[in-house]
Amino acid sequence: MGQQKDDVEVTDDDSESRKKIKTKELLKRRAPITGWLPSYTLGLFLQDFLAGFTVSLTEIPQGIAYAVIAGLPTQYGLYSGCMGCFIYVIIGSCRVINIGPTAIMALMSQSTVAAFGPPGAVLMTFLSGCLIFLAGLLNLGFVVDFFSYPIIAAFTTAAAIEIASCQVKTLMGIKGGSDSFLGSWETVFNRGSEFKKWDLLLGCVTVIFLFTVKEVGRKHGTLSYRKDWSKTKNLIGRFVYIFTLSRNAIAVIIGSVIAFTYHRRGYYLFTLTGSVEQGLPPFKLPSFSITHNGTYYSFNDVLETYGASLASTPIIAVVEHIAIAKAFSKGRSLDATQEFISLGLSNVMASFVQSMPITGSFTRTAVNHASGAKTTISGVVTGVMVLFALAFLTSTFAYIPKATLSGVIIVAMFYLCEFEAVTLLWRTKKPDLLPFAITVICCLFFSLEYGIFIGIATNMVFVLYSTARPKLQIEEICTAHGDGFVVTSKTGLHYAAAEYIREKILDKCCGEATAVIVNGEYVGNIDATVAKSFHTLKKELEGRNQRLIFFNFKKAVRESIIGIDAKLSENFRGGCLEDIFEDNVVRV
Amino acid sequence: MGQQKDDVEVTDDDSESRKKIKTKELLKRRAPITGWLPSYTLGLFLQDFLAGFTVSLTEIPQGIAYAVIAGLPTQYGLYSGCMGCFIYVIIGSCRVINIGPTAIMALMSQSTVAAFGPPGAVLMTFLSGCLIFLAGLLNLGFVVDFFSYPIIAAFTTAAAIEIASCQVKTLMGIKGGSDSFLGSWETVFNRGSEFKKWDLLLGCVTVIFLFTVKEVGRKHGTLSYRKDWSKTKNLIGRFVYIFTLSRNAIAVIIGSVIAFTYHRRGYYLFTLTGSVEQGLPPFKLPSFSITHNGTYYSFNDVLETYGASLASTPIIAVVEHIAIAKAFSKGRSLDATQEFISLGLSNVMASFVQSMPITGSFTRTAVNHASGAKTTISGVVTGVMVLFALAFLTSTFAYIPKATLSGVIIVAMFYLCEFEAVTLLWRTKKPDLLPFAITVICCLFFSLEYGIFIGIATNMVFVLYSTARPKLQIEEICTAHGDGFVVTSKTGLHYAAAEYIREKILDKCCGEATAVIVNGEYVGNIDATVAKSFHTLKKELEGRNQRLIFFNFKKAVRESIIGIDAKLSENFRGGCLEDIFEDNVVRV
């Protein structure tokens, strides 16, 4: 832009080539694939392929497990895992992120599925996508900034606890019961005796297996290759690494094999997932009116039932996605608008293949990154693998024991909990524990949707209160020509502070001093309420034979104050403090 | 307190006398009458009596008019005018304030009266009083600070427009119709032809009379006595002054006399107020369950119907009261807690004599002040006058023409509108026009209760947005030992700004410079989200071979940052900028 100012005369040729450059840049921004695809090589593809394959080993069992959390038939978890990647590869700006079903999104879909069955979740995906896309176009990215660390940590922890709680009864083989946090524990305590020993045994073994592998893997680190290691050691390292990453898949496969074997021999030991619909999802627009359990719901009925979750689902999706994108943008600043657009479109397109709401997954993105993914092509590989599973493996999914899936979910949720946030907040800022605690409690005992909004409101109250009570520094100065008070605020002056400042000054600036000097050095901006309050203050001080001086105020602030009463312009002074008294202007 | 630290050894005698002094001070604060009554003289009483009598000339017609606004039988307006003064005289801290029915409180009671009749308004008075009293005990006075000037001006203007609009049809003699802003204009336009010529004539004459007197009085000023005037001139001045102040009473009396005269002769020209119940109000607890129009409502039903107005009525009462108390505290700082307690108790006690919600009245307080009231005794005089009117004058009230009352209300509302706020906001701060406009529109077209809360929320969004986007000053400095960027924020750092700061620094501090120096001089406080963001930033900058330096941070802020990661303590530096580079600490 600066260049254009310097050389005003631009030839037509130049301006055209510039237009081309601009168009190219816009294209690169809006379809990042055009930036890196031309230089894409086979070597990069091999790396992407390996990473994508590894991620699919996580994604397939996760997809099935998350469908269970949402209360959807199993295949819907896999439907959710394919389309997002295909859209994101073209327009996504963060190369390693993996988009698809997540535990929290599944939990948020639970109530809509309960009300309307699968079409309810699919329509929610479509609507969330539209809203996120719109928010991107309207540049509403700043909304994400109001989700502070304590709130996100609290929400994640509460969601993880709720999800894990719901799975305890399934792990014990107890059928039915409520899906809320309190309800599921009630079921466990009231109907605990109904437990099925084989389900419970398999579930516990799964949990122990997964914990062990995770902790062993953690000890060995995720490094698969070290120069100072021998070839054998490196091979073992590589094996441990892949084994650790695919532990969920392994647990599910082993569980299914056991169940299948006994089933074939006529021993129906475990509660199984049951038949899964084979084949790829149909590609069609989501239905806007839904018939569920024989009742017809118009689009309006559906929207009414959605209620607050129509706001919270897209917001949580965006918050999760942006947090992950930021964590993996490694020092480059993130194009939030582009990420909103990508996530929005991914959801809209995903809804055409019967997906539940999707967003960036932290686990799978981490696996993708650790496995050496170079571009979003790795996501495409994962997507293709999921489609492959849908086309050819669904018949085997029927044999997955429910207890195994519950075990997988419970262990994953344990690692999702951010208990360490409590220590961290205690060490950095104790008052932040309050919004944290409020969010956890409200999310668990009321609902996730309201919990997070109540948490944010609490957090905002802190900020608003701090703007209402700025720290004022009041010093008395004595000069040869007179005494006065100097009032300095080191923070901005907002309307909520207007009366506080006036009262503080009236209260503290008593005595012989003839001048009250408000130091405007740090005041960047004031509003009408503060300006009016200064006007009142001036009159009140004059009633006490004191003069109000606005000292070193910036031009914009000065104009705001004079807007109230042009006479106030007499009260402005600049320069040096002593001069004020020498001028003798202090006398009223 | 400071004294107690100096001389630790306090004799029993001393501490006892000190306790006495403390008790006395507390008594003076909680029952201000104990402070001034001992030195009260007959001279002061005469001044208070004159002021109190003048105020009653305003209060009686106002009370009747406000009862009409609320939809209550006329006597309820007078019931509302007596008890408040008797309570406030003992515990009120502002000597000239007049507490009683106001136009806005009457408007806020309209919906409860429509739902439950008079008992609904009385119960609301009781509950509002309890809530205000409780808020006083809990020190919640700061809530009032969030009612900024644009919001209060907008709310008052909208309420005045709505009240005046409702009276237009009554002034024209049209019966019935809706009481909402839109509804009442609809009635006027649809049923305008039903107007009664005598009602309309009387109404218009009243309006013209009141406007003329008000403007003449304004020209002459409210000064009743001037030294440089002759005796005759002063007498005339005094007459004009009292005439101006009692213009409402005069209009009502003249209107009633005309109506009464014609009525006696058998000409029923005007719509009259109709029979008014004679006598003092019964003293009894308000009923918590209400039977209205044959339907029984339990306390829970009533609360449910109250809804948002259960929050907005006490809040608006408090905002009105505190604003008036501040305006008349003339340079002394106000004891907000005491005012909350006084207003709360006044409402609770007023509900025992069938009052609608009461609060400080701006008009009557101004009259009281201008008439030379010295203490709250003048309020007692007003209260006694109102009781007198109830006991002996109610039979004459029946002849007050409705059109006269409407005229009184319309003129009063015209002067209540704060249209000048628009010019003032335009001159001082244009963005403040947005919350103003939103509040006016929402109050008029939705409801007063929600309008004011939506307005406040809009206003808060401005403040929150400004905390999310602090102004960062980024300067490049070059020294003999190395280059760096100095980042200074002149406002506090709140969580919503955390990501913004990180991205700005990553974005702007590129290039050869090896150090990014964050100047903590103006940072008074940070929260965990900002601290975490600094931690991420440090790692990201290290990835670019840049070192993050926290320069001249305060101890509290430093501890918050170190709470995230103890290693960050290595990044703090104090002293002078150049030293940082000389130390060679800049290298990563």
UniProtKB/TrEMBL annotation, chains A, B:
Domain spans labelled SLC26A/SulP transporter: 45-439
Chain ranges of the STAS domain: 486-560
Entry's transmembrane regions: 86-108, 120-142, 200-217, 238-262, 306-328, 377-400, 407-427, 433-465
Lineage, uppermost ranks: Eukaryota, Metazoa, Ecdysozoa, Arthropoda, Hexapoda
The name this protein goes by in its record: Sulfate transporter
GO biological process: transmembrane transport
Principal localisation: membrane
Topological type in the membrane: Multi-pass membrane protein
GO CC entries: membrane
Cellular location(s): Membrane
Keywords: Membrane, Transmembrane, Transmembrane helix
PANTHER family: SULFATE TRANSPORTER (PTHR11814)
Gene3D superfamilies per record: STAS domain
Species per Swiss-Prot/TrEMBL record: Exocentrus adspersus
